[in-house]
Inverse folding.
């Protein structure tokens, strides 16, 4: 990162070793859906592990209706498109899929197509935004990125896929619910840096675009909270309190997780990560990033930004836990 910018501190030494700098590169994963079309939702090579993982998902009635197996299948669907970097044919197919899936839930979805200047030239990108209306002025914003990093044979099951699978499942549940405040769900393109290293401004293209557009439209001050998920599907996750995130919002999410019995997963340890939440933090929107980027050799996400970020690393149970925490956190925010 450039001087003056917040440095990604998580496991600095490991990042140094992997990325060659202390600025950190970021990671995420991917997943797929059991399409309503009746087509096999995932590649045959990963079908067996998915079935095994799905078995440890709690019943949806124990997680506010959130279906961890369904979210995992949504990740598998994404992965089935192959590597999905911004501007690729594969991500275009995924965009079509996401739009069709969201509309099938009855969601109102807006799209924003734009071009970004990147180290690889101008790249077409597209943000998707689900808008669930509320009774009063105010917006609760949820978010994920759905692009995958430009690496050979990288399908981003956890990095890009897992959080997108969760947001699809949240949309399926929330698009039929009213509330005091509106709930918007953002699917960002272009989070991953085009270069190998994470160095501003080569990252977070989609979230910067959306935050800028909301500033122009006047929606930005209406956002009461932004909850970002990224790299959330690993089998034994440990989420730490991201240090730049807004303290009261971190407290709300972490206390919610503990009340639900997930205190051994949402830890009271600090961790600094650069991610899409910064695009909104810079504009004074209260924001939190729920992310597990423990990518050391023995870490939870040792496969980060490698071809090993595949479906077999994921757990339907982990997706269900994060989905449950997000649903209950939205309830808490609706009551404020
Ligand atoms: Zn990544």
């Amino acid at each position: 990162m450039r001087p003056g910018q917040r440095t990604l501190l998580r496991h600095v030494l490991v990042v140094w070793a992997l990325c060659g700098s202390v600025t950190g590169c970021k990671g995420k994963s991917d997943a797929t859906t059991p399409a309503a079309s009746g087509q096999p939702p995932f590649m045959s090579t990963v079908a067996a592990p998915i079935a095994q993982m799905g078995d440890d998902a709690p019943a949806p009635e124990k997680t506010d209706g959130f279906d961890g197996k369904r979210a995992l299948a949504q990740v598998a669907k994404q992965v089935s498109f192959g590597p999905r970097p911004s501007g690729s044919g594969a991500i275009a197919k995924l965009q079509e899929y996401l739009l069709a899936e969201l509309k099938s839930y009855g969601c109102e979805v807006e799209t924003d197509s734009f071009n970004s200047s990147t180290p690889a030239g101008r790249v077409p990108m597209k943000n998707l935004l689900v808008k669930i209306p509320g009774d009063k002025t105010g917006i609760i914003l949820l978010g994920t990125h759905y692009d995958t990093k430009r690496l050979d044979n990288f399908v981003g099951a956890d990095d890009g896929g897992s959080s997108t699978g969760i947001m699809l499942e949240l949309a399926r549940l929330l698009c039929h619910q009213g509330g005091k405040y509106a709930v918007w769900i953002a699917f960002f393109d272009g989070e991953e840096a085009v270069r190998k290293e994470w160095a501003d401004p080569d990252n977070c293209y989609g979230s910067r675009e959306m935050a800028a557009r909301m500033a122009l439209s006047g929606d930005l001050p209406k956002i009461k909270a932004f909850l970002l998920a990224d790299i959330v599907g690993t089998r034994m996750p440990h989420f730490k309190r991201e240090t730049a995130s807004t303290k009261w919002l971190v407290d709300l999410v972490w206390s919610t997780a503990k009340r639900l019995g997930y205190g051994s997963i949402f830890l009271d340890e600090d961790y600094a990560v650069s991610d899409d939440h910064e695009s909104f933090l810079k504009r004074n929107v209260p924001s939190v990033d729920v992310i597990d980027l423990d990518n050391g050799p023995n870490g939870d996400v040792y496969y980060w930004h490698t071809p090993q970020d595949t479906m077999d690393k994921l757990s339907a149970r982990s997706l269900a836990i994060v989905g449950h925490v997000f649903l209950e956190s939205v309830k808490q925010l609706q009551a404020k």
In short: The first helix runs from residue 12 to 19. Strands lie at 109-118, 121-132, 139-145, 182-188, 223-230, 239-242, 266-271, 287-291. The longest strand covers residues 121-132.
